[in-house]
Each structure stands twice: as structure tokens, then as C-alpha cells.
């Protein structure tokens, strides 16, 4: 039952906190430190009671500042808010700050997070009505609404800009951000060994011309795939993080696959049109290079008929979709006498 | 143009001499025919780009071309040496700019040479005319280069088709209409021509072409920063050939001289200089240079030793080679890792990792031509070619040669890059044309053959034997003649299966011989041809429309159609620049937002503070700060920069949306980035940018607002802004430090003069003076601090 102490420690602390209402500021700092040590990244999870304990009932000047991240689990599913991304960045700043500073410096600023569902009262106390929202409560702040708000611009550039904000407002040094490497050292060593072994075999295979690289079909498939992916605006989807489709605002049961206006596209829309682009080309290629070699006359006729109908339909579809989406009126120029 | 392929029917069984003369005649006829087709393609490429001249006039477009035009003027007037050492003091006052060492000189030198040539032939064209028509001329060259390149890959028919497609591909038209005098205009030609010479060297193994290739590469380096695409694509192809076991001495000759000569030549261009050996963009070529030498050594040793000795040698060479390679790679990695951006420029990095720019470099990410394109962009820019490219890729794999593997690699990399940045659609377009040309030509080849030999009148099988002669993809002349002889010999009896001793030549011959019976059903072929022709017709309609409507506006002269169908021309920009050049002193300084810097120096010949070469952010921020400051502070900033006149562009009267008020937030942002007392929220009411009665006092008092809307109420009595669709917030005010000197016909450009500084010692009453001094001195120190130039 080793879990017990870790689970009950906060509760115990809480009760003790509530009992001694006149705890002096040193006690508050120790409490904060112990709360901090319980989370991996050093972020203290606040709720209404802790807010009143550390902020509203503690008279300024307090010996610490609190940086508070306002979180709401129900909005985690909304990709445009980037709440979870921001939280990871925030915890990076927090853990880097703790790692870069000794206890005396680290005990003057604490990174906290607060959840909307548990602590709606605190949200209204701070006057927070939109997310993402990060606030710095300095030592001298009396009214919580006067505390400083981190601008959109300050968390746009991820952890670095957050730490700049902290450094400029608190005169504390956050230091370099320690990002966890994407692959750990052991994994790197393992990969290097694998690559070294593989290179040996690979060179041998290349010398004997016996790898997957010597199969032209692989290259053909790869080339067509890259083509398909690019013309369908796949890069746009990745860079702009476009969803595959949207839910219609007026009618939630309906899905929107196509967006009007040429500056933007939805993921599904792009892939659908990219598929049409590629299909026509592939059919043409197959007819001219594969179908001619088929000896069966009727098979040729059937395949060609299908290919022609499909291609015609696909081109027509893309043209009409393009006209609908961009609204350009492409027209020919006829001699005036013909009118 | 596809008759070419079917035209070359081999002759019936007559005497060989008669056959030979007939064949030569046909070849000669075909060559003359293709020559005329190419001529027509050149004319087409040139004339489709003249819409801008016809619809507007022979004028240089937009912003950057004006700078190039001015540089060309300088070159033709002062000669090449002065151009090389040119320090321009009429821009970025008081800093100036070194022009000779910071521009890609290819375009300027090309147009300058063209002008000089025409003049020495006693054809007195002005520099401007030459500049306007440089881009269309080079588009014709580019389509001929495409013909040459595609011909090397898949034969004459494909070459001609690709050339005609490239002549009118919208993506290329957008950068090369008459008047669009920019680097890309000549660079695309240089790009295709360099690729052609590389393929030509690869097919022939001739050192002559290898040298030409290096020279073409030099021209490309002179012309455009996009040359890094070449110096990475060719090494990639070489590596691909080595890895797939296609190493040959031809490959070595095509690559090694290019790297050595090309790098040396590239380092001669001042703007590139030592970057040619110091930056990561070029490292791939050196790495492959090492690898190809190791491989060449291995092949050489293998040829000289017996198999057993070779095995011993292999272990030796491979181990030594690996050690050398590892050492070199380690050095390279150390070099690369020592620089903060890993030696890559931000733009290149954002190509490799598409999300890079959006994360770390907002300036690059914010430029509209660096956005990733959506699917309609492809349809707009390459139109139906998007449908044809996959067929071309398939054709290139059947059979795969060195040349066709290169174009496949080209299209794959180019299409990926175009997917990351819409601007690189320009590099992708030629590849798409080549691939579509191949696809169309092959399709027409098969379909016309199917019709020809199954027409009711002709006796199918007996005649179908005659199609053995095709002009596609000859690797070299020997193979071709062998083919001809053999097919002629063995045509009556089908004993082709017996002759499979020489696999290399035979394989292609066999596919050729088999094809004589390869036909598709007649009716379906007829329909398919009709559909393909319709597709081509749609392409032509689209391209002509794009050239005429979408890409021809010069943006220096604007036109609108009134409701009655009449044409209305707005020529305010040139009116304003002409006023400046006629009514101001030669050395007067004119301040404006950076967009109009190039045009002011080129057309008005006046010194500007900032221009479109945005190399000094602080300087731009100073101008932005002045525009966002109240009148007095702005006057002080401008006065400290010796500015006499301030030029603003205002579209509120005629509804011209890209005016300075709409760009104003950028001025605030850039100014505030350097001088923090300018804060964006001061100009926004509840996060909204507005200039009506709800606007903030800071906004209504800033210089840009005042200069734009001064006396605006006198136009209609209500001061209704037709861009913002609202009445402005402050209608009646006077200017204290500026005076209006000129406003153009449609009020699109307004020019103000800085009032001379007031005389300090004036015979005012003593008490007011003492009062003024006591109140104003702290204020002055305050404003003094704000002024970044004090």
C-alpha cells in the first residue's frame, strides 16, 4: 500500500492548511514546495480552496508569485484552442525553471494550473472568460483581477516566449528550456547499431543488385504517391492542421466536406480531388501501356469503356468543383463577329 | 505534331538504296516540319504574354521589376565595371546600399546585352522596351529548351508536345508576361536548359556537353537563388543511379565536371561567393562527388582484376573507402552542427520540414507566396496537366532509362516542394509539362496507330508490320541503326524470339517489334482521341483566359469597367512620380512605406528612406514609427532623416484596397517591434481595427490617418471611405507640421511637404515664453527620447 501516502498527502495537507488559518508566509512557501514536488513537471494543481489559501487570504506582499494556467478539460477536443499543446509547453517551462534554479530562487515563483470544472468560482474571481489564458499573480497583487495576463503573442512562440514573459515580469531567470529529446540515448545507440548492421548488408545487396530499390515498381508507386499527396494539398493540411471535414454549424448531423473559397481547403476535399487527378492519369497510363498488350479484344473494349467514362466524369467533376470553389468565370475569347 | 511518330513508316521491301533515299527524305521532311512547329511554338509563347501590353501598355509591372529596370538602366549607361562596384546612395538614406554585390546579375546582364546588341545593329530600342519584352523572349527560349530536354528523354513527338504545353502553362505565364521583368523570367529557361545539357551529357558521355552544362549552371546561378534546386537535384539523381546499379562512365562525365567547374563558376558571382562551398545547400553535391569517386575506383579496379583478386581488393577498398567516407561525413556534420541553423537558410529548412517556418519564422510564413497551395491552385496553375502527369510517370518507367529516371526524380521533388510553397509551382510547371507531353504523345501514338491499322479500308495485319520505326528514346545512334537494320530484315518472318543474345539492345527492339500488333479497339480509340483533343482545347481556353484576365494587370496602372461597359483608367501612381521628378530638387528625400521605394527611385529618381529590399528592419521600423506617431513626433523623426516630402497611398476615394491605411497595422507592428512605445492595442478598439467614430484617439491623431484623410471631407461632404465602407472618425482638422503639396487625380497618391522648423527666438511676449519654456521643456525631453534618431 505504498500508494497511500502519495494519495493522501495532499488531503492531509489540505486539512492541516484549513485548520491553521494564521500560518505565516514561510509555512505557505513550504506547502507550495511540497505540493510542487508531487507533480512530475512541478505544476501545482490549484482549486478554489487552495486559491483562497495562497492568494485571497494571504495578505500581500506575499513572498512568492504564482503563474496560473487556466485549463478546461471540456475544451481539449477543440483543436483551434491548442490547450493541450500549450499545457505541455507550460510544463516544459515549469520543469526547466525548477531544474535551472536552486531552492531559494525557485521558491519565489510557482507554476500552477487550475481546472474549470472544479474551480468555477476562481475563474470568476479572476474574471477569466476565454481560453487559453495564463496569468501571473505577483507578490503585491491585492485584487486578483489586477494580475497580469500573458498576451496571445507571448505564448504563440511556445515555451521560449512564455519564459521571456516570466523573465521580464518577475526578474527571475528561467534559463534554457530543457526539452526531452524525441529519442532517448539508449534508443539512439540502438538505432546506430541497427543502421551499422543494415549498412553492411545494404552495400552488399546494392553490389549484387538485389534490393527493393532495384524494383522499378516500388519507385513508380512512390512517385505516384508523392504526386497524389502533393496535388491534393496534403502539405496544406499538415501545415495548417486542417481537419478532414467539419460538422455543419446549423445542422450537427450533417458533415461539411467542401469549403467554398480558394484560400482554404478541408482535408477530405483535397484528398478527394487529388484522387480524381491521379485516377485519370493512371487510367490513361494503363490504357496506353498495359491494355494494348492484352490479347483479349472484349476485355480491351470493356476496360477502355470504363476508363473513358470514369475519366470523363472525373474531369467534369473537378472542373465544376473548381468553378464552384473559386468562382472564376473561365471563358473563351471568340471573334466579335461571331456573337 | 504527332504525325511525326506515325509518319516514319519503314519502307516496303524494295531495294535498299531506294529505301535509304526514302528514309532520308522522310527524316529531312520531319526535321523541317518540326523546325516550323518549334518556330510556331516560340511565336505562341511570345505572343500569349503580350496581353498586358495590348490591354494596358508597354510598361514595367509591380515593384521588384522597377528595381531591375533601374539597375539595367545604370548598366547600359555606365558599363559593367561601374555596375559591379555600384554603391547606390539614392536608397536607404543615409545608409545606402551596395547593389553590385547584393543582386543576382543574370537578368540585368541579359537585358543589357540584348539592348547593346540591338543598338549595335542600329535598332534603336529604349532600355524599357527591352526590359518589358525580355520575359516573353525567354519564355520562347524556355519552350525550345523543353523540347530539347523531352526529346532526349522520349523522342521528338513528346518533345514537341511538351514544348507547346510549356509555351502556355499559366504558372509560368504568371511570372513572365510582358513587363514582368523579374529574375524568374530568365531563370526558368536557365533551369530547363541546364537539365537538358545534363541529360545530353548523360546520354552521350561527351565532355563538350559537360562543359556547356557547367556554363549553363553558371548562368542559372547568376540569375536566381533557385539554383540550389539544381545543385541538389542532380546529385540526388547521381546517387539514385549509383544505388540502383546504373553507374557508368557517362554518369561520371556528366557529374564530376559539373561540380568542379560549376562550384568554381558559382563562387565568381558576388552574391553567392563563398556560400558555394560554405552552406549546407551545397554539401550534398560534395558528398556525392566523393561517393562517385569511390564507386568509380571500385569499377576501375574490378575491370582490371580477376574475380578472385577482386574479392580481396574489395575488402581492402571498401574498408579504406568507408573510413575515408566516415571521416568526411564527420567533418561535414561537425561543420554543419557548429552553425545555429545547421547551415541551412530558413527557406530551405522550411522545404525539408514544412512546419518549420510556421513555427519559428513568422516573417517567412507570413509572405503570401510562401503559403502551401490548395488543390484549386494546381488547377489554376497547371490546369489539365494535373490529370496527365501520372500517365507520364508511368511512361517514364516503361522502360526506365537514365534520362527518364531523371525527369521522374525532377517531378517528384518539384511537386513536393510546390506543395510546401506555392511560389515553387513555377519550378514544378516545366516538369508537369514534360510529363504531360510524354503522356499525351504516347497516348496519341497508341490511339492513332489503333485507328490507322484497323480502318475498314486497310488490311490491318499486313500493314501493321510497318510501324516498327519510331523515333522515341534512342539511346545512341548505333542502337538506332542496328534497330533499323534488324527490323527491316526480320519483318517478313517473325523470328524475333531467336535473337536474344544482346540483351540491352534486344530488349528495346523486342518491345518495338511486339508493338506492331499492339492496338486498341477502333471505336474506343476514336472516342478517346476526341476526348483528349477536347481536354487539350480546354487547356488552351484556360491558358488564354489566365493570360488575358488573371495575370496581366501591371498594378501600376489600374483599370475598372464602369456599369455602362466603359473603361476607366487610374494612372495616379505615375502622375505622382512624375510630379515628384518635375517639382522637387534632385537631392530631396522622399519618405513612404517600403512598398513604394523601388518605384520612387526608378520613376521619380528621388532618394528614398526604405525600399522593397527589406534588409534593415530598424530603418523600416523608424519609418513605421513615424507614420504611427502624432504629427509633431513624426515631423521630428522625418526631419532628422532629412526628409523633405512624405508620400502616402490612399484608396478611400476610389475604393483601391491595398492602400496605406490597410497596411497601417503592419507599420505599427514593425515599428513597435523596435520602438516599444508604439503599441498595437492603442490603435485597436476592442481588438478591431477601425477608422470611424469608434476609433481610438491614438489612431485618429497618428500621421498616417491625418495624411490620408486631410481635406477628405471636401470631396463628398460626408467623408465616406469606400474601402473601409464607413464614414471616417475625424473629418475636420488642420495640419501643423506638414503641408499638402500635391494630390493626384483620384486622390490615390498624396504628397506632403515638411514645413520648415519654426524660428525659435521670436519676438513673443516674455511671460508666454517663460511659461512655454517651463511647460515644454520636460515634454521636449520626453519626445526627444521617443525619437529614435536623437
From TrEMBL, chain A:
Entry keyword Membrane: yes
UniProt record, GO biological process: protein N-linked glycosylation via asparagine
Keyword Endoplasmic reticulum: yes
Gene Ontology cellular-component annotations: oligosaccharyltransferase complex
Intracellular or extracellular location(s): Endoplasmic reticulum membrane
InterPro entries: OligosaccharylTrfase_OST3/OST6 (IPR021149)
Its membrane topology: Multi-pass membrane protein
Keywords tagged on the record: Endoplasmic reticulum, Membrane, Signal, Transmembrane, Transmembrane helix
Residues of the signal peptide: 1-23
Family annotation (Gene3D superfamilies): Glutaredoxin
TM regions (residue ranges): 188-206, 218-239, 271-292
One Pfam family in the UniProt entry: OST3_OST6
Entry's family note: Belongs to the OST3/OST6 family.
PANTHER family: DOLICHYL-DIPHOSPHOOLIGOSACCHARIDE--PROTEIN GLYCOSYLTRANSFERASE-RELATED (PTHR12692), GH11935P (PTHR12692:SF0)
Subunit structure comment from the entry: Component of the oligosaccharyltransferase (OST) complex.
Its job: Subunit of the oligosaccharyl transferase (OST) complex that catalyzes the initial transfer of a defined glycan (Glc(3)Man(9)GlcNAc(2) in eukaryotes) from the lipid carrier dolichol-pyrophosphate to an asparagine residue within an Asn-X-Ser/Thr consensus motif in nascent polypeptide chains, the first step in protein N-glycosylation. N-glycosylation occurs cotranslationally and the complex associates with the Sec61 complex at the channel-forming translocon complex that mediates protein translocation across the endoplasmic reticulum (ER). All subunits are required for a maximal enzyme activity.
Protein name: Dolichyl-diphosphooligosaccharide--protein glycosyltransferase subunit 3B
UniProt organism field: Salix udensis
Automatic annotation (TrEMBL), chain B:
Keyword set, alphabetical order: Endoplasmic reticulum, Glycoprotein, Glycosyltransferase, Magnesium, Manganese, Membrane, Metal-binding, Transferase, Transmembrane, Transmembrane helix
Enzyme Commission designation: 2.4.99.18
Ranges of Basic residues composition bias in the record: 759-770
Biased composition (Polar residues): 458-473
Region (Disordered): 458-503, 759-790
GO cellular component: endoplasmic reticulum membrane
Annotated Gene3D superfamilies: 3.40.50.12610
Name of the featured protein: dolichyl-diphosphooligosaccharide--protein glycotransferase
Amino acid at each position: 500500500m505504498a500508494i497511500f501516502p502519495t494519495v493522501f498527502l495532499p488531503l492531509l495537507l489540505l486539512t492541516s492548511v484549513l485548520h491553521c488559518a494564521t500560518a505565516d508566509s514561510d509555512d505557505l512557501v513550504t506547502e507550495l514546495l511540497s505540493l510542487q514536488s508531487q507533480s512530475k513537471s512541478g505544476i501545482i494543481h490549484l482549486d478554489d480552496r487552495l486559491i483562497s489559501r495562497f492568494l485571497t487570504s494571504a495578505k500581500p506582499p506575499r513572498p512568492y508569485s504564482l503563474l496560473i494556467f487556466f485549463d478546461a478539460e471540456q475544451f481539449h477536443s477543440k483543436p483551434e484552442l491548442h490547450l493541450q499543446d500549450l499545457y505541455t509547453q507550460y510544463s516544459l517551462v515549469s520543469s526547466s525553471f525548477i531544474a535551472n534554479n536552486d531552492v531559494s530562487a525557485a521558491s519565489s515563483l510557482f507554476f500552477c494550473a487550475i481546472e474549470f470544472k472544479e474551480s468555477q468560482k476562481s475563474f470568476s474571481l479572476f474574471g477569466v472568460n476565454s481560453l487559453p489564458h495564463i496569468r501571473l499573480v505577483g507578490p503585491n497583487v491585492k485584487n486578483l483581477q489586477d494580475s497580469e495576463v500573458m498576451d496571445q503573442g507571448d505564448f504563440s512562440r511556445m515555451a521560449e516566449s512564455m519564459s521571456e514573459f516570466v523573465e521580464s515580469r518577475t526578474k527571475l531567470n528561467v534559463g534554457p528550456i530543457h526539452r526531452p529529446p524525441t529519442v532517448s540515448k539508449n534508443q539512439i545507440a540502438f538505432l546506430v547499431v541497427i543502421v551499422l548492421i543494415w549498412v553492411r548488408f545494404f552495400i552488399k545487396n546494392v553490389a549484387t543488385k538485389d534490393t527493393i530499390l532495384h524494383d522499378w515498381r516500388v519507385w513508380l508507386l512512390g512517385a505516384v504517391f508523392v504526386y497524389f499527396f502533393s496535388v491534393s494539398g496534403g502539405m496544406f493540411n499538415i501545415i495548417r492542421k486542417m481537419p478532414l471535414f467539419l460538422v455543419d454549424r446549423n445542422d450537427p448531423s450533417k458533415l461539411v466536406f467542401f469549403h467554398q473559397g480558394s484560400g482554404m481547403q478541408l482535408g477530405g476535399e483535397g484528398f478527394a480531388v487529388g484522387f480524381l487527378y491521379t485516377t485519370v492519369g493512371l487510367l490513361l497510363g494503363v490504357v496506353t501501356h498495359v491494355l494494348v498488350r492484352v490479347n483479349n479484344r472484349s476485355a480491351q473494349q470493356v476496360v477502355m469503356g470504363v476508363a473513358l467514362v470514369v475519366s470523363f466524369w472525373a474531369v467534369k467533376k473537378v472542373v465544376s468543383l473548381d468553378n464552384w470553389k473559386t468562382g472564376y468565370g473561365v471563358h473563351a475569347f471568340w471573334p466579335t463577329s461571331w456573337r | 505534331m504527332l504525325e511525326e511518330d506515325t509518319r516514319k513508316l519503314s519502307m516496303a521491301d524494295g531495294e535498299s538504296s531506294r529505301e535509304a533515299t526514302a528514309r532520308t527524305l522522310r527524316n529531312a521532311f520531319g526535321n523541317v516540319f518540326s523546325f516550323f512547329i518549334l518556330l510556331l511554338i516560340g511565336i505562341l509563347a511570345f505572343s500569349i504574354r503580350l496581353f498586358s501590353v495590348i490591354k494596358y501598355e508597354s510598361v514595367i509591372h509591380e515593384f521588384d521589376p522597377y528595381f531591375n529596370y533601374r539597375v539595367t538602366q545604370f548598366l547600359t549607361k555606365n558599363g559593367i565595371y561601374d555596375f559591379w562596384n555600384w554603391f547606390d546612395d539614392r536608397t536607404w538614406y543615409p545608409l545606402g546600399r551596395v547593389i553590385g554585390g547584393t543582386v543576382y546579375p543574370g537578368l540585368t546582364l541579359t537585358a543589357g546585352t540584348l539592348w547593346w546588341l540591338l543598338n549595335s545593329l542600329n535598332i534603336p530600342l529604349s532600355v524599357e522596351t527591352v526590359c518589358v519584352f525580355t520575359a516573353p523572349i525567354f519564355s520562347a527560349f524556355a519552350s525550345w529548351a523543353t523540347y530539347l530536354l523531352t526529346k532526349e528523354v522520349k523522342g521528338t513527338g513528346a518533345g514537341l508536345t511538351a514544348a507547346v504545353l510549356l509555351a502556355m502553362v499559366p504558372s509560368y505565364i504568371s511570372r513572365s508576361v510582358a513587363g514582368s521583368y523579374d529574375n524568374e523570367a530568365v531563370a526558368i529557361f536557365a533551369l530547363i536548359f541546364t537539365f537538358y545539357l545534363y541529360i545530353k551529357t548523360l546520354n552521350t558521355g561527351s565532355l563538350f556537353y559537360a562543359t556547356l552544362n557547367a556554363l549553363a549552371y553558371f548562368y542559372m546561378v547568376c540569375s536566381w537563388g533557385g539554383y540550389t534546386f539544381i545543385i541538389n537535384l542532380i546529385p540526388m539523381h547521381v546517387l539514385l543511379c549509383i544505388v540502383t546499379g546504373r553507374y557508368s562512365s557517362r554518369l561520371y562525365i556528366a557529374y564530376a565536371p559539373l561540380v568542379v567547374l560549376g562550384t568554381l563558376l558559382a563562387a565568381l558571382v558576388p552574391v553567392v561567393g563563398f556560400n558555394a562551398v560554405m552552406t549546407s545547400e551545397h554539401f550534398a553535391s560534395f558528398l556525392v562527388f566523393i561517393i562517385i569517386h569511390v564507386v568509380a575506383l571500385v569499377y576501375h579496379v574490378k575491370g582490371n582484376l580477376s574475380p578472385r583478386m577482386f574479392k580481396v581488393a574489395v575488402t581492402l577498398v571498401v574498408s579504406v573507402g568507408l573510413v575515408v567516407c566516415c571521416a568526411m561525413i564527420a567533418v561535414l556534420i561537425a561543420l554543419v552542427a557548429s552553425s545555429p541553423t545547421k547551415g541551412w537558410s530558413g527557406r530551405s529548412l522550411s522545404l525539408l520540414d514544412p512546419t518549420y517556418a510556421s513555427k519559428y519564422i513568422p516573417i517567412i510564413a507570413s509572405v503570401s507566396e510562401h503559403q502551401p497551395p490548395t488543390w484549386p491552385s494546381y488547377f489554376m496553375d497547371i490546369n489539365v496537366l494535373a490529370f496527365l502527369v501520372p500517365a507520364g510517370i508511368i511512361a517514364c518507367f516503361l522502360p526506365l532509362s537514365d534520362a527518364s529516371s531523371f525527369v521522374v526524380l525532377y517531378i517528384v521533388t518539384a511537386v513536393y516542394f510546390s506543395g510546401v510553397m506555392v511560389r515553387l509551382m513555377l519550378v514544378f510547371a516545366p516538369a508537369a509539362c514534360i510529363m504531360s507531353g510524354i503522356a499525351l504523345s504516347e497516348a496519341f501514338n497508341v490511339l492513332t496507330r489503333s485507328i490507322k491499322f484497323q480502318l475498314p479500308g486497310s488490311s490491318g495485319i499486313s500493314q501493321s508490320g510497318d510501324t516498327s520505326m519510331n523515333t522515341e528514346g534512342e539511346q545512341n545512334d548505333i542502337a538506332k541503326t542496328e534497330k533499323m537494320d534488324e527490323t527491316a530484315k526480320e519483318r517478313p518472318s517473325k523470328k524475333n524470339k531467336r535473337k536474344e543474345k544482346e540483351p540491352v539492345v534486344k530488349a528495346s527492339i523486342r518491345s518495338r517489334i511486339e508493338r506492331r500488333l499492339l492496338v486498341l479497339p477502333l471505336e474506343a480509340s476514336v472516342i478517346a482521341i476526341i476526348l483528349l483533343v477536347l481536354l487539350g482545347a480546354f487547356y488552351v481556353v484556360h491558358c488564354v483566359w489566365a493570360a488575358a484576365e488573371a495575370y496581366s494587370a501591371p498594378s501600376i496602372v489600374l483599370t475598372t469597367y464602369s456599369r455602362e461597359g466603359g473603361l476607366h483608367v487610374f494612372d495616379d501612381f505615375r502622375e505622382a512620380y512624375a510630379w515628384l521628378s518635375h517639382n522637387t530638387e534632385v537631392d530631396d528625400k522622399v519618405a513612404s512605406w517600403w512598398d513604394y521605394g523601388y518605384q520612387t527611385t526608378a520613376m521619380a529618381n528621388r532618394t528614398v528612406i526604405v525600399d522593397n529590399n527589406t534588409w534593415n528592419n530598424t530603418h523600416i521600423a523608424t519609418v513605421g514609427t513615424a507614420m504611427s506617431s502624432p504629427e509633431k513626433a513624426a515631423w521630428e523623426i522625418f526631419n532628422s532623416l532629412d526628409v523633405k516630402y512624405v508620400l502616402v497611398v490612399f484608396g478611400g476615394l476610389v475604393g483601391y484596397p491595398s492602400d496605406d491605411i490597410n497596411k497601417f497595422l503592419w507599420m505599427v507592428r514593425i515599428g513597435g517591434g523596435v520602438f516599444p512605445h508604439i503599441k498595437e492595442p492603442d490603435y485597436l478598439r476592442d481588438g478591431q481595427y477601425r477608422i470611424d467614430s469608434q476609433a481610438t484617439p491614438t489612431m485618429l491623431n497618428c500621421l498616417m490617418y491625418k495624411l490620408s484623410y486631410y481635406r477628405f471631407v471636401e470631396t463628398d461632404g460626408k467623408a465616406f471611405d469606400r474601402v473601409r465602407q464607413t464614414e471616417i472618425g475625424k473629418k475636420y482638422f488642420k495640419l501643423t507640421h506638414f503641408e499638402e503639396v500635391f494630390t493626384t487625380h483620384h486622390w490615390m497618391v498624396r504628397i506632403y511637404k515638411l514645413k520648415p522648423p519654426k524660428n525659435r527666438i521670436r519676438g513673443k511676449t516674455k511671460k508666454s515664453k517663460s511659461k512655454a519654456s517651463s511647460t515644454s521643456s520636460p515634454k521636449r525631453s520626453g519626445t526627444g527620447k521617443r525619437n529614435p534618431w536623437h
